[in-house]
Specification:
InterPro entries: MutL. This is MutL protein. It holds the Pfam family MutL. By secondary structure, this protein is of the alpha/beta class. The protein folds into three domains: 6-75 and 216-225, Nucleotidyltransferase, domain 5 (2-Layer Sandwich); 79-211, Flavodoxin domain (Rossmann fold), CATH 3.40.50.360; 247-465, no CATH class. The chain has 15 helices and 21 strands. The chain has helices spanning 43-57, 90-100, 115-124, 141-151, 165-177, 198-215, 232-245, 305-312, 314-321, 325-337, 346-367, 400-403, 408-412, 440-447, 451-460, and strands at 6-12, 16-23, 28-36, 65-72, 79-84, 104-110, 128-131, 159-161, 182-184, 227-231, 246-247, 250-251, 256-261, 266-271, 281-284, 291-296, 370-376, 379-385, 394-398, 431-434, 463-465. The strands form five sheets. A six-stranded mixed beta sheet has the order 16-14-13-19-20-21, sandwiched between helices. Strands 3-2-1-4-10 form a five-stranded mixed beta sheet, with helices on both faces. A five-stranded parallel beta sheet has the order 6-5-7-8-9, with helices on both faces. Helix 9 packs across helix 11 (346-367). It starts with 5 loop residues before the first strand and ends in a 12-residue tail after the last strand.
Length: 477
């Protein structure tokens, strides 16, 4: 543990600039502050307001901060496009690398890019493009064709080349001939069925710091900070990893899953191997990354409420909310007209609860793998696709819908294994915790400079949830 001092941990979000002041000796929050996100105008305005809010909550005086670190998901987050060779292989590996680096994936392309594909990429206006394709020593033609096609595109964003190493130098030359900034890193799939995602993730994060922070205007706050370290989703995943693994001399909580439900997306992070928990199971498809993040862009509580209802069916939402179908339709229309609306009546609260439960259940099921019995010439075989989360020991919930719920355990329960869906490999009997203070990003940031204080911060402020329990601040020991 640190010998003292304080840290200021900042998240430049799309709506708010959020501050957490942490005592490094105890690993506890001493104050919080919040201001509007003013990245599109002058980021320092919102930062100053958040600092003033923090000072007011601390009695008028800010402590001297030993560390002042920030993450950002502002101005739409880190917009990224990936291009690979085969959809199920190198394109999927590129997608996993992008999501793990904290990017907002706005487009995924496979095979040789067509003129229409290039036009679509130009319209998407990515901040970074990840170009993959071919195993090392394998297919070179497609990645080189795609490099040539992208070299004449109107995009000016950096390109990370993470494909066949035998073609990487030529791909870089073609892209640079078109005026594109290029970073070459190791292949995301150097051998068939083998992933190597971390070098690409590191390259994406480095570009975020070097270029995107400036492009988004966040570097205007440089005088108030030591560094903007990474995109906020990457900070959350780093925080989850630390809480799972612990540090030398102090263990963590073990394999875990984080469900983060928001107004526009529901994100799921997992820290575990994902290998079959049962013997005799054959794994099909690409190996799953130990650190995995999925983003469900159709499962936001406000911007995508209609998509949630459509995905599970109005009848299920009505039954879970205990409301007539016509009332559900009326409430859905109300949200369409007022996206930022918070529940103001008991009916709206019940509808919100049902929406959250549906979104969490769907997002967890999509993140988790599946298992099924197939029949081969030798007889029945149990086949797993994706990540087995059944033995995960901890499930952490965060996001406004959970934090403000009367019974967050009730909302989080659909992320668990369901007897009615025996093929879904969701967690079976985890301890359920709540990140009530929205601290996972702060844990991830602090980990970079003081892992012991960061671990204490996470463990001190995660609340234990019990079935039907409305109690607050039941902290992890």
């Amino acid at each position: 543990m640190s010998d003292g001092g304080h840290a200021l941990l900042v998240d430049f979000g799309s709506t708010y600039t959020k501050l957490r002041a942490v005592d490094l000796a105890s690993g506890r929050i001493v104050g919080t502050g919040q201001g509007p996100s003013t990245v599109t105008t002058d980021v320092t305005v919102g930062m100053e307001q958040a600092l003033a809010d923090l000072a007011r909550r601390l009695g008028g005086t800010l402590p001297v901060f030993r560390h002042r670190l920030a993450s950002s998901s502002a101005a739409g987050g880190l917009r990224m496009v990936t291009v690979g060779l085969v959809k199920e292989l190198t394109a999927e590996a590129a997608r996993l690398a992008a999501l793990g680096a904290g990017a907002k994936l706005v487009g995924t392309f496979a095979y040789s890019l067509t003129a229409e594909d290039v036009t679509t990429i130009e319209d998407l206006a990515p901040d970074i493009l990840l170009l993959a394709g071919g195993t090392d020593g394998g297919n070179s033609a497609v990645i080189l064709e795609n490099a040539a096609a992208l070299s004449v595109a109107s995009i000016r964003c950096p390109v990370v080349v993470a494909g066949n190493r035998n073609a990487a130098t030529e791909a870089k030359r073609r892209l640079e001939a078109g005026g594109k900034p290029v970073v070459v890193t190791r292949n995301v799939m150097p051998e068939f069925g083998k992933l190597d995602l971390e070098p690409a993730r590191d390259a994406i994060r480095a570009i975020f710091i070097d270029r995107i922070v400036h492009a988004k205007g966040i570097d205007r706050a440089a005088g108030m900070l030591d560094a903007v370290l990474m995109p906020t989703p990457a900070a959350v995943l780093d925080g989850a990893q630390l809480i799972a693994e612990g540090i030398e001399g102090q263990g963590g909580l073990g394999p875990l899953v984080v469900v983060d439900i928001g107004g526009a997306t529901t994100d799921v992070h997992s820290v575990c191997s994902g290998e079959p928990a049962r013997s005799g199971v054959l794994v099909h498809g690409l190996p799953e990354p130990y650190l995995k993040r999925t983003v469900e862009g159709d499962l936001g509580m406000r911007h995508n409420a209609a998509a949630i209802v459509e995905a599970v069916g109005p009848a299920r939402i009505a039954a879970d909310a205990g409301l007539p179908a016509e009332r559900v339709a009326a409430l859905l229309a109300l949200l369409a007209d007022e996206v930022e609306r918070v529940p103001q009546t008991p009916d709206e609260a019940r509808f919100d609860r049902a929406l959250a439960r549906a979104a969490i259940g769907l997002a967890a099921a999509r993140h988790a793998g599946t298992v099924e019995t197939v029949y081969a010439v030798t007889g029945p075989v149990t086949v797993q696709r994706g990540k087995d989360l059944s033995a995960v020991t901890t499930l952490i919930g965060t996001g406004g819908a959970l934090v403000h719920a009367d019974d967050p355990a009730d909302l989080l329960r659909p992320a668990l294994a369901d007897p009615s869906a025996p093929g879904s490999l969701r967690p079976e009997r985890p301890r359920m915790l709540l990140d009530r203070h929205y601290l996972l990003y702060a844990v991830g940031l602090l980990r970079a400079v003081d892992p012991a204080a960061a671990l204490a911060l996470g463990l001190n402020h995660l609340d234990t949830l019990e079935e039907g329990c409305h109690a607050r601040h039941r902290c992890v020991s």
